[in-house]
Amino acid sequence: MAEDNDSIDLGSPMDPVVPVSGFPGPPPPIYTCTLTPELVAKAREELQEKPEWRLRDVQALRDMILKEQPNLRTRLDDAFLLRFLRARKFDYDRALQLLLNYHGGRKAWPEVFQDLKPSTVKHVLDLGFLSVLPHPDPSGRYILCLRPGKWKPNDYPFVDNIRAIYLTLEKLIQPEETQVNGIVILADYTGVGLSQASNPGPFLAKKVVSILQDGFPIRIKAVNIINEPRIFKGIFAIIKPFLKEKMAERYVLHGSDLRSLHRNIPRSVLPEEYGGVAGQLDMSSWSKTLLDSEEEFLVEFCQPDPLEGVVLPESMLFEGDQASGQDDDSFRGLRSQLYYCY
Does the reported pTM lie above 0.85? Predict the structure, then answer.
């Protein structure tokens, strides 16, 4: 039985939506803990979350926001703030910094976050660039499946892929189970060639990694790479300098060895395409889940700038859109590496 708690309701911008395709729906406007006793114990052990102090901790973070960032137009409801506390193991200061990074990323990257809603990335979903497998793994982690080889530079701008990934993460982080368990990424590099590998560049890669590592309240527990070509050495050379050591250690390269993949993701939750027994890879269910959430995202992302009038710390993670000369030089060098590997 899930644990019940009274809550201060400061209002959530979203009303409950009936879940579709088996994926969890958004939380109700008034917070009630939905974690099972097992997940409550896991959150206590791994995230330093004490159920008896949970709402006190949320109120403490809320008070910090109102005192230190009174002009920040952010959600203050329990369910939303809990995401940031859990992502930073209930360290108030780090949770507040993550919240600022979360909003700062939007300001620093308007081409990704402006008018961000599922209907604007329908072409990405239709192409099959990403999906979420319908069943979580035995650890309760949903699996985000990326297929970069499905995208070609002439199809549409690369930032559209990032928009689709971000919307997917926003949807995945809604249920408390994901906040505690985290997610797993499965990236299939079949069909990736030089044109895809060299397109993003190091500055774009840095911004993507920065958002995922330090600007979004989700725990990425593993990144499994399969069918990577020789050129992947050059791709990873672009990404690795921006990865924290802990995150870099979570990358596992399997090549075409499905047995290696199955040691990390069991066959029971994998589609037939990856040696699993969970039927054929279905790209439509997750696409429907996102597209049916259009109104949620209209409220979440199509509003005035939440940072207008806010003075951010000098240590702010995001530094704007202008790449330095060093980034340009690095890109030229890495592009040479990619040609060599290819």
Answer: no
